[in-house]
């Protein structure tokens, strides 16, 4: 039995264009399945900003991976516990928020590498190894965990951009994600300001120069085209699943309300 989950580094290596993803926060099976069938290459299950249980994440990983969409997980902090469990659940990678120095990056990412390169514990009897059914057994589980799982450092403060060369070279850092939202907050600048756009561009340029995959979040249109032209290997489209649901529901309600009001005004004139 082959491992069913796709791994993010494998996806990026095979792609001839930027991979497209979306942040997801809704664990409802119906929404997960709709997003999985929408045409994205990967999703980022967002445990930092959504009240998702480990069981929620586990089930989301399973549905997305079985649907051919690579599931990544944004973990909440620099700790080991939940990140380890998500990887053993079959996540194709993890995003680690707020890594601002090379030392932070190395200490954090080594937790998600197997010995002798790191300290990740072996759980070869779990889903990531298809309950032990993957050809190659524990050795293949460990190889995939080190060589195909993606450990993505999130660059979200000006300090991280200043230290980006050290972060890139830290053992275990496989890709960078530059977050414009937190960058704007940390800079005290409004989102989309020239200063924030430039800072994000500087981080992307450093990653491209170093030959490491880099991604960011961008709305479809000129903003996304600019980031693709700058060399991003992956793009997360906005809005996320909650934003898409809200947009659809609110637009539908407004359209229906407009019909009711227009009809009422016309009736009043008769």
Describe the structure.
- The chain has helices spanning 8-14, 29-36, 54-66, 81-88, 102-109, 137-147, 158-162, 164-169, 180-187, 194-210, 222-230, 241-269, and strands at 19-24, 42-46, 70-74, 93-96, 150-155, 175-178, 214-218, 234-237.
- The protein starts with 7 loop residues before the first helix and ends with a helix.
- It is α/β, with parallel strands linked by helices and 270 residues long.
- The protein has an 8-stranded parallel β-barrel, surrounded by 7 helices.
- It has 12 helices and 8 strands.
Entry keywords:
2 domains; globular; 270 residues; 12 helices; single chain; TIM Barrel; 48% helix; alpha/beta
Record the strand order, biggest sheet.
1-2-3-4-5-6-7-8
Structural class determined from secondary elements = alpha/beta
Looking at the overall shape, the CATH architecture of the largest domain is Alpha-Beta Barrel
CATH topology term of the largest domain:
TIM Barrel
**SSE ordering:** HEHEHEHEHHEHHEHHEHEH
Q: Note the beta-strand portion.
A: 5-15%
Question: What composes the largest sheet?
Answer: 8 strands, parallel, barrel
Strand tally, please? 8
What are the SSEs and their pairings?
Elements: H1 8-14, E1 19-24, H2 29-36, E2 42-46, H3 54-66, E3 70-74, H4 81-88, E4 93-96, H5 102-109, H6 137-147, E5 150-155, H7 158-162, H8 164-169, E6 175-178, H9 180-187, H10 194-210, E7 214-218, H11 222-230, E8 234-237, H12 241-269
Parallel strand pairs: 1-2, 1-8, 2-3, 3-4, 4-5, 5-6, 6-7, 7-8
